[in-house]
Amino acid sequence: MGLESGSIRNDRQAILxxxxxxxxRTIRKLGPELPGRQASDGASSRGLSSVRQRLxxxxxxxxxxxxxxxxxxxxxxxxxxxxESGVSAARATQLAPLPTDSLFRAQPTPTGWPDSLLGDPSxxxxxxxxxxxxxxxxxHGGVDPGAIGQGGLKEKDITLDVARRLKARLERYSGxxxxxxxxxxxxxxxxxxxRFANEQRADLFLSIHFNxxxxxxxxxxxxxxxxxxxxxxxxxxxxxxxANSGYTLAEFNELTQQLGLELKIQESKELAVSIQKGLYxxxxxxxENVSDWGAKSGDFMxxxxxxAPSVLAEIAxxxxxAQEAQLNTAEHRERLAMFLEEGIVSYxxxxxxDNVSIDHxxxxxx
Amino acid sequence: xSNDILYVGIxxxxxxxxxxxxxxxxxxxxxxxxxxxxxxxRKMLGKPILFGAEALENRMSLNLVRPLESGVIREGTSRxxxxxxxxxHHLIELAEPEDDQxxxxxxxxxxxxxxxxxxxxRDAVKEYADSLMVVSEPFAVSYGLGVLNNAMxxxxxxxxxxxxxxxxxxxxEEDQRTLSTAGDYIDRHxxxxxxxxxxNAKFSETLVRKYKEQYGFVGRSAxxxxxxxxVGAKFIDHDITDELEHACERILPPIVxxxxxxxxxxxxxxxxxxxxxxxxxxGGSQIRGIADELxxxxxEYGSFKVxxxxxxxxxxxxxxxxxxxxxxxxxxxxx
Lengths: 366, 335
Prior knowledge:
The structure holds two protein chains of two kinds. By secondary structure, chain A is α/β, with parallel strands linked by helices. Chain A has helices at residues 2-27, 42-58, 60-76, 80-85, 123-126, 155-170, 190-199, 232-241, 249-258, 261-286, 301-305, 321-327, 330-365; strands spanning 133-138, 177-180, 204-211, 219-226, 290-298, 310-317. Chain A is built from 13 helices and six strands. Chain A starts with a helix and ends with a helix. Chain B is of the alpha/beta class. The radius of gyration of chain B is 21 Å and the shape is flat.
């Protein structure tokens, strides 16, 4: 009952915020834009030529890389970026101001991130590939409740609620399609989720889940991208989330062959790092007991099948009674959506910023 | 709630405009604005501008404007923009704000106007409101009814029929549709039919609109509709029952088609949930038998329940007021 009335209240709040943001866009005549969505102008033309020069200067090494990943681009449905935008180096644009919530004050970046996750710029970033469609996947649903907290809170309900909130938040940025794999309490197989994301030509995919672990005092946050399970826990979790995926072994093998490993894993890893950072550092301010279990690889079928860079985030622990109590409040679920938004925006901003730095470097060379 | 602020909900309609305010004022006016044609008219009328029924009564002496004809402010006609401005001003005055009260207004407009004239409407209102939100009329109705999820509102206005599907978030363009086969379309068709049947009688638009509002029906007739109309200088009885029914029925097929087309774009589970929660609002919802006929026509596609809202005249303004009052203060500050 509490959740039902909370759901109506959430709808109302989401709608009021939507009205406000719609009117704000009218006042400003156009909405805020995420980095990388700037229309072509002088700067982006400069970016184009500078990237080309950059490409020439990099020489045959990049040629080899291109040859290797070109097939992967096509298979992943990302090749169209070349058709539509060339190798546009988009400028960083003004982001919509995040709420003035104290939670969003600048935080020091947590230390201890594996160097391997913060390595060279990815291929997509190097070529200024852009993101247009973001698919958010609320985990579980319908007859599959997911994990259930001690107080009875169901994972399927809060994944959907946070996903809707995140969608509403991301829709403030013009030029992006933000889609949900499900917008109601329905069960979708992993196959259906994957098919939806691929049919919609997702450029970025985020699956939202909540952790449930035997030690209920723990409150870990972790974000996965596709790859061999990094530890036994990751393998167990993947096994649980992959249950009834609807894929045969042959199809699984086909998927692994189609996977543009280099590009997709690199991009997914960076997205996972950005989301994990945003979640952990902000959650830490609310609850000092949260643990950072990091951004890591896992054998999640949903991450394998989606052709776009994709991550699965376990954004809080439903098995922790204190966290479950927090998750029962709309305010906290809104915060989680806000933290996820920050992670996604930060990842996209990083792309644009890198492209700008390429511009400057080339101008100096000229 | 602070008394320093007067919250105002306005339904800016093609045919009627309505205001509901947090001080309890609820008023409506026909959406006509008239300026005296010349000095003589100005002196006779004693006012620089007239609104609603008063403007209609004195239409011979006025340059009369119905600013949201066809659901939008016509482009390039500054008179229409000015009329919207004056109409809003008039509605806010009808709400009787105190001198030191700030006015926070939520204005519902036809969906098409929201799409096309959003900035123009904001400009028209900003002089008279300290803070302003503009929304579509069917959305304001939904909000007022509290049907925020699993529901559809069909607002049958004079200029347009607006559809809005509510699914728990702010409806986007894909959740809304607009048809131009609305109340005015019925009037035009009714005039044609009556002129054809009674070539010697004089049927004006105003007269025909009055017949529609008074006697309009679809489905089973409650009896013959006989009206007195001048032929030459003599008032003669005319039976307009069949013509009235035919004219009113004309708007049903596009409404059914659009309802099905819009609903079919959603998940089957959502479609199922929406079927029983279709609400009819706007003046057109008062056409006798329309909800039942729509339910009947939709039966071909399964079981539907179409319900007319209780107070169609004020549903939009009341909804806009509810939205204004629920809106967090910090949101208003930036508007």
